[in-house]
Amino acid sequence: MSQLRSSFRFKFAGALALAVVTTAAPAFAAKPKKPDKDFVLKEYQAATVALRRGDFAAAKTSLDAAITAIGGIQVDETGAKKARSLWSDESAKLFIGEPYERVMAFYYRGILYWMDGEADNARACFRSAQFIDADVENKAYASDYVTLDYLDGLASAKLGGDGKDAFDRAAKLTTASLPALDPTLNTLVFVEFGQGPAKVAEGKNKELLKVVPGTNLIVGAVLKIGEQTIPLTAMDDVNFQATTRGGRVMDHVLGNKVVFKEGTGTVGDVALAGAVTSLRFGGASDLTTGLAVGGALFKGASLLTKTKADIRTWDTLPGRVGVAPIKLAPGEHAAVVDFIDETGKPVTSRPVLIKVAGEQPDTVVFVSDRAS
Amino acid sequence: MKTSTHRKLALLAGAVVTALFAGCASSGVKNPSGVPVTEMKADERGFVAGTGIESQDLVTVTDKMARSILGIPEITQAKTTPRVVLEPIMNETRFPINKDIFLTRIRTQLNQKAAGKVRFLARENMRALEREQQLKQDGLVTASQDPNVVQFKGADYFLTGKLQGMSARTSQGLSDYILYSFQLIDAATSEIVWEDSAEIKKQGLEDAAYR
To answer: What is the DSSP string of A282-346?
Structure first.
């Protein structure tokens, strides 16, 4: 026994020395910088703020940085492995967002491409966005963004192609009538309003990701130019899109973690209860010690198992989005966009100066009910 | 006897700990210190890859197109050096790209390999060229030739292209097929005197943490 203790002391001293050397090491060698697992989220949020402030160059920079990360296929990513392991929450992975968030990144980038006169690259973004929405549990909700198919068709029409297929797809997705694909409409007014979705972790072990729709007072918008009043109808509800994705593969992974957590917890509880019973009726024995040690280990493993779903959210997303193509004469047009409630009463208004250069390229206007 | 029991217990505890943490340890941490910057050939597939248009595709496609153009009689047997203007290519895929890069690489490949058999006209620089000619006509700068005679060459051919794609996404993964087609169009007759294409298909499946 004394030999064992002596050996333990020696090993403990060795481990302590190693720990001291290890912790002292950063003073001599530069620590490798950890990649920021939230950088895509920060770029997303920066992009919406920049867009609403009219700083389109900054919005482009942020969206390009984010799309570079989300555009490829995430394989062999260290954070993802951690997220799947028992000992880390899902948020250990690099954030790329749920499909509705990735869709919005491509949607915004498409608007900016169109603004730069690159309708084909804009269309590419809208197609990518619709593609991201393809893999849903209930196929009725697959690739069902009206705005994206409509803009795909409009871009094709403007590029001299046939946008009818995309337009027909968009028309099937909505009961509202869509503006005709008229290539001569030289101004596109993109509008967004309301509060987008939030995420919460539910379940006993916070393993269930639930998307909660944002509450919205604003239900529509109206563009006023001189005597003209043009309704700006929202074609898509981001909250609806976010809540119709269905289950994720990661939900199964989190479910397995919960099974492990609860299983080891139960085994630990039983073993510890056995140890107490054994102690009460038989006194301290090898069996008691074994049950206590085993129970503590299982209980510890259960406590260390992390099951929480990733609730990082692009919280600056709007509730609804839409686009209205209109025809304006070349020149400057002072306009106002009124965001209205159910009774048609303006909740807030935004002044807009629309500068139309001519027929080509299209003038693209982006209006949000929020200033940032 | 007691020491032996304690050793057994210690071994048992060790085995339990090993068993519990085995999943964690076996998953390991790959490249914990990151991967240093690696210089790669442009036609090499890197370790950062998606199913979209990448540099190796650009090199493969433009090399093929440049070789193909050089073999056509309109270029090899032309009595006078054909003048070519690049027209923007059309991107019909789902990938936003810098479209000019394809034609730029085809042009540089042809300029390198054609040894003067074909000439490209710098139409994207027309504004600067016209301004220079105006300065010469106004006598503000010197001119080696009569500035009032138009020297700008007209195009014999237009080189253009189109990128088209088909994509699929299911729970099994995602796949992207892209058809790269290029054409040489006779500027006088609108005839397509040359056309060639290349096709690339890629597929993959994301980590379960992102599905």
So the answer is: H-S-HHHHHHHHHHHHHHHHHHH----------TT--SEEEEEEE---SEEEEEEEEEE-TTS-E
In this prediction, the answer to ipTM > 0.85 reads no
Q: Do residues B120 and B107 touch, judged by C-beta distance below 8 A?
A: yes
Query: Which one-letter amino acid corresponds to residue A323?
Result: V
Dihedral sign from CA coordinates of B164, A104, A164, B203? positive
**By C-alpha distance, which of A348, A52, A48, A51 is closest to A217?**
A348
Q: Is A346 exposed, middle or buried (0-12, 13-18, 19+ CB in 10 A)?
A: middle
Torsion-angle region of residue B199: left (phi > 0), alpha (psi -120 to 50) or beta? Answer: beta
Least CA distance to A5: which residue of chain B?
A: B3
Return d(Cα A236, Cα A191) in angstroms, integer. 11
Q: Show residues of chain B in contact with A125, CB under 8 Å.
A: 96
Pairing mode of beta strands A320-326, A236-237: antiparallel
Question: How many CB atoms are closer than 10 A to CB B41?
Answer: 10
- Mean pLDDT to the nearest integer, A344-371: 91
Is residue A34 scored above 80 in pLDDT?
A: no
Contacting residues for B80 by C-beta, under 8 A, at least 6 apart? none
> Cβ A290–B12 below 8 Å, yes or no?
yes
Contact A41, A53 (CB under 8 A): no
pLDDT number for residue A286: 87
Quote the pTM value.
Answer: 0.81
Residue whose structure tokens are 């280990």: A297
Per-residue b/e over A251-280, b at no fewer than 16 CB within 10 Å? bebbbebbebbeebbebbeebbebbeebbe
Binned at pLDDT 50, 70 and 90, residue A281 comes out as confident
| B-contacting residues in A 172-231 (Cβ below 8 Å) | none
Specify the DSSP element, H or E, that contains A177: none
Average pLDDT over residues A111-130: 96
Per-residue b/e over B118-141, b at no fewer than 16 CB within 10 Å? bebbeeeeeeeeeeebeebeeeee
Q: Which residues contact A32 (CB under 8 A, 6 or more apart)?
A: B33, B34
* Helix orientation angle between B55-70 and B100-113, rounded to the nearest 10 degrees: 50
**Are residues A128 and B7, on separate chains, in Cβ contact within 8 Å?**
no
Give Cα A98 distance to the centre of its chain. Answer: 4
Chain B, nearest residue to A86 by Cα: B24
Q: What residue ranges do the domains of chain A occupy?
A: 39-251+309-368, 252-304
B16/A294 CB distance under 8 A: yes
Q: Does B197 score more than 50 pLDDT?
A: yes
B91 contacts chain A (CB < 8 A): yes
Domains and CATH numbers, chain B: 74-204 (3.40.50)
